[in-house]
């Protein structure tokens, strides 16, 4: 079950299991063992849970007992989140600042457009 869920998540995020495990400093040699039903340790579960933004329940059972934020993400959003998690704190701050600026520009533009409509200018 765990192995199937791991493959499903990797496919969903456009990743391959071996590079994911290596990137999390986990041994890809365990893939074959998991495929054959071997038990997964807590370190692996925690790292994969954080990496894919899913619950440990989901990793073990394939069903979330609680709503996972990842289940609400589009494929592009999920990939962006994975890239974001790999950035250093300084770069994360730059990204957050740019996102806020873009959001403000968009909302200001909508407000301007709505205001123009109210004035009959649009």
Description:
With 122 residues, this protein is an all-alpha fold. It has two domains: 2-73, 434 Repressor (Amino-terminal Domain) (Orthogonal Bundle), CATH 1.10.260; 87-122. The chain has helices spanning 2-12, 17-23, 30-35, 42-52, 56-61, 75-85, 89-119. It is elongated, with a radius of gyration of 20 Å.
Can I get a quick summary?
Helix content is 68%, strand content 0%.
Overall pLDDT level: 84
First-residue to last-residue Cα separation? 57 Å
**Structural class given helices, strands, pairing?**
mainly alpha
> Rough shape?
elongated
Oligomer: single chain
What is the CATH domain class of the largest domain? Answer: Mainly Alpha
Index terms:
122 residues; 2 domains; 68% helix; elongated
List the helices and strands and how they pair.
Layout: H1 2-12, H2 17-23, H3 30-35, H4 42-52, H5 56-61, H6 75-85, H7 89-119
